[in-house]
Hints:
Blueprint: E1 8-11, H1 21-36, E2 40-43, H2 55-68, H3 91-104, E3 107-110, H4 114-126, H5 143-151, E4 157-160, E5 167-172, E6 176-181, E7 189-191, H6 199-209, E8 214-218, H7 225-235, E9 241-245, E10 248-249, H8 265-270, H9 275-283, H10 298-304, E11 315-316, H11 319-331, H12 335-348, H13 358-368, H14 375-381, H15 395-401, H16 406-419, H17 428-439, H18 443-455, H19 463-485
Helix pairs in contact: 1-10, 6-7, 9-11, 12-13, 12-14, 13-19, 15-18, 16-18, 16-19, 17-18, 18-19
The structure holds glutamic acid.
Amino acid sequence: MSPGSPPRVRFAPSPTGRLHVGGARTALFNWAFARRHGGVFVLRIEDTDQERNSAASLRSILDSLRWLGLDWDEGPEKGGDAGPYFQSQRQDRYREAARRGLEEGWLYRCFCPPARVAALKEEQRAARSSAIGYDRRCRGLDRAEAERRAAAGEAHVLRFAVPAGEEIVVRDHIRGRVRFRSEEVEDWVAVRSGGMPTYNFVCALDDAAMAISHVIRGEEHLANTPKQLLLCRALGLPEPEFAHVPLILGADGRKLSKRTGDTAIEDYRAKGYPAPAMFNFLGLLGFAIDDRTDRFTPEEFVAAFDLGRINKAGAVFDLDRLHWLCGEYLRATPPAELAPRLRPWLAEAGIVGPATSEEWLERFAAAFRERLRLYGDAAVQGAFLRPGGADRPDAKATAALAAPETGRVLAAAAERLEQAEVFPPADFDSWARELASALGLGMGKVMKPLRAALSGTLGGPPVGEILGLLGRERALGRLRRAAGRLSPPSP
Ligand code: GLU
């Protein structure tokens, strides 16, 4: 970046699939870097592969970025001075660059049939030769002859004429200076036969045209970087700085893939992972604020973000850590804020309806938030609140209900609750102790059947809160129904 001018970074997804964890992490680092330095975050859609692009993928990528809170300053739906931001709309620029390359001689026409090039590479592999790819046979073709053959319609590609004896230094904020010699770089294809430009060609052209100062992207692209830098040099353009971020590894130490769990951000969203926890988790994949801080807000992350602190080593995707972060996040969210976020999950599970009040939802959030990790957990843990939700008690609850004193307990509890002035009793523990002593039973003998009758399980939030969520009528109904299901005492 030229001193004093704010950085310009970009995230450049191809809309050939949904946004994955690795892409989201790259986007997040770009976003944080731009926000940290008052720079510009560009979203560029690399949609040159017409066959593999899809509108659904694009939508999924944009939605996932928005869900994570990664807003872009220039790009789709935003526009900007460096547009268009879809590579499919920049074809004339690529054609013009190709024309210029041929004219200036840094591109040349190569008529070698693909089979020849493939055989050459195969030979090199078999002989463990140090030769790099294509043997540059067509580089020596007479220019006029090449033009004649092209005009006659002979199939060919455009290759980049890698200059001899140059050193290419990638200034990488994570890896330091990574040096390549031009002898290590093949005369790579810039435009395929048929006219479709390649990723390396358009990426470097667009980074230059969009004045990208820092290219922050996955480590798998490091091998492409010298090719892109040579193109910058040929065009006489400034070279960006780089940060090649480490791979994300699954728990098995191999590159993260579907094998090791969900990889698409959309899947996490659909399962009810809270977005701020996901943000926090992605931020920790290869980066740490310090050796203690494992939870942070996006603002704190931005304030601490520094490319130089990104690890070189692969980052392990630890699902347990993600779950822990989700739980911590939900626990720290005030019930009033949590309530509206839980509503769609509870509605989908038939636990609430349109008439359910905010107050009830807040009560639910307060009762359950200690026990949730994902929004989706609310639907599972709150399932007993559905109509008839305690009618089929689980094994432990069934055992508790089978105790000889259960009938007495349920009947006495129902009677007292019916008459209670305040429902649920303001001090539920004293109410329960009174009931136990009136029946001459220990607390456990009272609470277990009560809980089993009200919720069909022995887990869940405190019984007082369950009563509050059910309301008097439903609670009494459940106690009496459970009592009615008991087998009559033997004569
Ligand atoms: N479209 C490329 C990808 O998705 C972009 C790589 C880059 O950031 O240069 O991998």
